[in-house]
Write a structure and sequence with these properties.
Blueprint lengths: L1 H18 L19 E5 L6 E2 L12 H14 L3 E3 L2 H9 L3 H22 L3 H18 L6 H21 L4 H18 L12 H16 L1 H4 L3 H11 L3 E9 L5 E9 L4 E8 L11 H15 L20 E14 L8 E11 L4 E12 L11 E13 L5 E14 L2 E4 L2 H6 L11 E4 L4 E14 L2 E14 L7 E13 L1
Helix pairs in contact: 2-11, 4-5, 5-6, 6-7, 7-8
Length: 496
């Protein structure tokens, strides 16, 4: 039975090998990078703070310079993130809000006076000024730009409080909390500054050690204030701010803590990861992998928005010149002939747009007036017009209506009117044509009020124009036989 089972197993294996499909290598699927709007990110401390326990050696040799560079490389390598560099920081600070700039300047001035008060042992005045210095440093966000200045201001403030407490022993306990808070800010901004026994007074060292222990023992004290992060994000115009720091535990192990502020979601995240583990203590670059993994997990969960397509830019007509040229038709509302006369000609005008709606327009027009059916007009003549108009227009995508009003200066060539049938039939030079039946005249120069509505069709810089023209004769009104020119125009329009 065993042999039968073994033979049956071999047969099944052979069948499986025969029926198995040959392995075919396939290319990896390409990952499409979406067209999204990248977010800017910045590692805020130019020197990542390293908070060590007093008298405890760290297990891992962490290089904070390499740590910051690794985080920056991770941001630069992300397809949807853009690294905000330190070189951009200086320009952003120079262009900061005037309130922040004034606060920083006032803090520097007060700091000089506070140093004089401390040297003169005028601690009460020093406390007032140093409290104002610290407050102005908070407004100017100096802790993120020059943290050493903020640390020195808090150190001097703590010293001033200590001296006051020594002068008033009954109220000494009331100063303890203020002193610890000042020392905490000193530790936050300058962890490398240590107060050692033998170099400082026992009271200063005791209160400093208590403040440092409180700071290292409670993560709440170490976290970045969300209001400060939001203000810095606004000043730098950065979407994501990283506030990394390395903190040592009492057993010597190191943790990486990171506050990450997202301006888009207005959310502050607190992340933490150990940099050394018991099973691989100081194992090469493992601490660097642990440090970068914490941000990698955060970046993978970021939400990115697709960039909004640029809105169609409306065509601007302001400060532009355009020209119209084309044929025209005209007739006179008042005429000495029985029949209405007709004329055709051409015109050219040049216009300048003051803004999107108002324009000024000047030009010239010549129209030839043809004879009438009753042949009272013996020969055709020409009229010349030179209008100056101001108008208003409105653009509606493909259509642009407009309305103009102005003055027109014009004159005409000599015309001849024949009154009798003989003159109309045989001409004004016939002997039977009496002089009294022929009127030869030339209207003098005249001035007219021109009314000119129209509409443009098309898309810049080319338009087709249809407009109506009405000239009302205002001077001279009695001598002219042909008055009140009216007509229409078709023009080709080009915008410069």
């Amino acid at each position: 039975m065993r042999q039968c089972a073994r033979i049956l197993g071999l047969l099944c294996f052979a069948c499986a090998c025969l029926l198995a499909r040959p392995a075919v290598s396939q290319e990896l699927t390409e990952i499409d990078i979406l067209d999204v709007k990248p977010l800017t990110a910045y590692v805020v401390p130019q020197s990542i703070p390293l908070y060590l326990q007093k008298g405890v050696s760290p297990r891992t040799n962490v290089d904070v310079v390499r740590l910051r560079r690794a985080l920056e490389r991770q941001i630069s390598g992300h397809p949807y993130l853009r690294l905000f560099r330190d070189s951009e920081l200086e320009e952003a600070v120079r262009n900061a809000d005037l309130t922040q700039a004034d606060a920083a300047m006032q803090a520097e001035i007060d700091m000089s006076y506070a140093q004089v008060f401390m040297a003169d042992a005028n601690y009460a005045s020093a406390v007032v000024l140093l409290s104002r210095v610290v407050s102005n440093y908070d407004i100017s966000l100096e802790a993120f730009i020059h943290p050493k200045r903020v640390a020195q201001a808090n150190q001097m403030l703590a010293y001033a409080y200590i001296e006051q407490s020594l002068d008033d022993a009954e109220l000494a306990h009331e100063y303890d909390q203020k002193i610890r808070l000042a020392f905490i800010e000193m530790v936050r901004n300058a962890p490398y500054l240590m107060l050692l026994e033998g170099r400082q007074s026992p009271e200063r060292v005791r209160l400093y050690d208590e403040a440092r222990a409180l700071f290292l023992g409670n993560a709440v004290y170490r976290r970045t204030q969300e209001s400060q992060a939001a203000a810095l994000s606004h000043m730098l115009d950065v979407d994501i701010l990283l506030f990394p720091r390395v903190v040592q535990r009492p057993d010597g192990a190191l943790d990486l803590e990171m506050d990450i502020y997202n301006r888009v979601t207005r959310e502050m995240r607190y992340l933490s990861a150990p940099l050394d583990q018991a099973d691989r203590r100081s194992a090469g670059e493992s601490w660097l992998d642990e440090a970068t993994r914490i941000f990698s997990g955060y970046a993978d969960c970021l939400a990115f928005e697709r960039p909004e397509p640029p809105a169609p830019v409306a065509e601007s007509f302001a400060k532009r010149i355009y020209i119209d040229i084309g044929p025209s038709y005209a007739t006179f509302l008042v005429h000495p002939t029985i029949d209405m006369l007709h004329g055709v000609g051409g015109f050219v005008t040049v216009a300048y747009m003051f803004d999107e709606h108002f324009y000024v327009r000047v030009g010239g027009e010549i129209v030839s007036i043809f004879g009438d059916r009753s042949k009272e007009l013996n020969e055709q003549f020409q009229v010349y017009h030179f209008p100056v108009m101001f108008g208003i227009s409105r653009n509606f995508r493909w259509v642009r209506p407009y309305l103009g009003l102005g003055l027109d200066f014009g004159f005409s060539t000599t015309y001849t009117l024949a009154r009798s049938t003989i003159c109309k039939t045989f001409g004004t030079n016939d002997r039977e044509c009496a002089e009294s039946s022929v009127v030869r005249n030339r209207d003098p120069y005249g001035m007219y009020v021109v009314f000119n509505p129209g509409v443009n069709f098309g898309r810049g810089p080319f338009f087709v124009t249809l407009e109506w023209l009405m000239n009302v004769t205002v001077y001279p009104n009695d001598d002219e036989r042909f008055k009140h020119l009216m007509g229409g125009r078709i023009a080709f329009q080009y915008w410069f």
